[in-house]
Amino acid sequence: MKLRSVILAGVASMTIAVVPAVLAGPNGKAGERSESAAVGPQLAVACTGWHALCSFTADCQTNGGDTADCACWRVNETHIVVTDAIQDAAVKRMTQTKCTTRNTCDVDEAPVCSAIRDGQYEVAQVKYDWVSTFSYRGWCELYQPKACDTARPDYVGDKRWAVCDAAPCTEIPDPADPERPLSCRCPVMEGPFVGTKDSCTGENGGLISAIELQYWDFEKDSFSVPVQGYEYVQGACAALKSDPWPPPQE
């Protein structure tokens, strides 16, 4: 295993404690917890290093089943792993046991971080050198979220999409796009989602790698649940100008 971060160096020191699980995998469910809630697994952990980034892939190719093969970037920066999306059963168990809502894991403390770094991430008895996780590379330029509400009668666009966090990946021997040398096998989902690049339709007949529609607030132009690090990305993406003073009343 062997990937510059828009979030800047400060994000590397953060513990990612709450993010939408669906950002990464079909099994996770984001939800609010009261202070008196029972101790549970930490919803997401932060790692550093090389990983596959599929956030802006819009041409995932289905293979006739419930997964799609997505060509992804090879990136070296701080990244987020949603613990419920981990496909290596042993690593998932160790991570969720060690990293809890009471004793959270700091950056690189989670077992999944070392599994990804050392090529010990195992799915279906195969160990993978590359794993798709979530990071902010390219966010300012490419995200351009669009509401893709497949339930609307006037909706035009794809009805299926791929979700790639914690998906196992392999190197493409002779990639058609040298910038995307990794192929990740991502679960295919159906229903409302957030399109990227201002589109609800995949490219070249493929599917978009996306998140569920409920996890993006279009009025606030932000995730609808806390995702640490995003506040830094907002500042990095904004035009250089002064904000109104005094601030407007909400």
What does the model show?
This protein has 250 residues and is of the alpha+beta class. Helix content is 12%, strand content 24%. Strands 2, 3, 4, 8, 10, 11 and 12 form a 7-stranded antiparallel β-sheet that branches.
Topology:
Blueprint (H helix, E strand, L loop, with lengths): L43 E4 L2 E4 L7 E2 L4 E10 L2 E4 L6 H10 L12 H7 L3 E3 L2 E3 L1 E2 L7 H4 L3 E3 L11 E3 L5 E4 L10 E9 L2 E3 L15 E2 L3 E2 L4 E2 L6 H8 L13
Antiparallel strand pairs: 1-5, 2-4, 3-4, 4-12, 6-7, 8-11, 9-13, 10-12, 11-12, 13-14, 15-16
Shape: globular
Please bin the fraction of helical residues: 10-25%
- Pairing-aware structural class of the strands and helices? alpha+beta
Largest sheet: 7 strands, antiparallel
The N- to C-terminal Cα distance equals 48 Å
Mean pLDDT: 85
Number of helices: 4
Cα-atom Rg, whole angstroms?
A: 18 Å
- The topology string of helices and strands comes to EEEEEHHEEEHEEEEEEEEH
Provide the β-strand percentage band.
15-25%
Uncertain stretches: 1-34
The total strand number stands at 16
Quickly describe the structure.
The protein has 250 residues and is α+β, with helices and mostly antiparallel strands.
